[in-house]
Amino acid sequence: MVHFWRYSTPFHSDLHIRTLIPFLILWFTWTQRNAAKYHGVPFSTDSIILEVQRHLRTLIVRWHAPSPSWFKLNTDGSSLGNPGLAGAAGIIRDSAGHVHLAYQFAFGTGTSVLAELTAVWRGMELALTHGLAPLVVEVDATTVISLLQSCTSGKWEVQHMIMRIVCLQQLLVADVQHVFREANGAADHLAKEAASLQLTRVLHHDDITGILRSILCLDRQGVPHLRRG
Which residues form the RNase H type-1 domain (predicted)? Predict the structure, then answer.
């Protein structure tokens, strides 16, 4: 039954709330049953519901649309080996969750930090070109947030990228924020594909298909995901 539930839609993930809720219900039903059988505690469905809700509140994350008249850029970078084949990617959406553009950028061998920064830079550059501002930028790498806040790095290629981003940030009135990786699924999918296939391209709404379209649909509907511990 659980197997049927998990695979009843084209898009499935072990960490999606839709997958985990049945397991949480089964687990807390089992603990209630044991408490009733061995400790004389009255079996309570209300207690099961409360336990499931309490557990979910600590784990739920979701993609949030930007404020009206703002745009949101979600970015991610991937390095297969660190250093290894690297790719950067991102996607820009409006307050209704509609895609204005997505992009992938492959640059051969690089580190994960350089890939993450390249994703931010490339996305901001495209946002400026297409007039998509003001802009909220979401990054799931805390290292990148720290580098952009300090504006310093010991490696020249990283420092050069930081300065390019800072300049674009001022032009776009861009606010760079951290986001949990589970709420950054679209950018993550694009970045991994860019690195593994070494893709460089810009995508528009009609170019988006398959898994990426499913992820974007879930984001737009506000469907939550569960955060890894």
Answer: 67-200
The span from the CA of 17 to the CA of 14, in Å, is 8
For the entire predicted model, the pTM comes to 0.77
pLDDT tens digit sequence for 83-131: 999 999 999 999 999 999 999 999 899 999 999 999 999 999 999 999 9
Instruction: Give dist(CA 181, CA 185) in Å, integer.
Output: 7
Alpha carbons 103 and 121: distance in angstroms, whole number: 12
The CATH T-level fold of domain 71-224 is Nucleotidyltransferase; domain 5 (3.30.420)
Using DSSP's 3-state secondary structure scheme, residue 85 falls into strand
Contact 130, 100 (CB under 8 A): yes
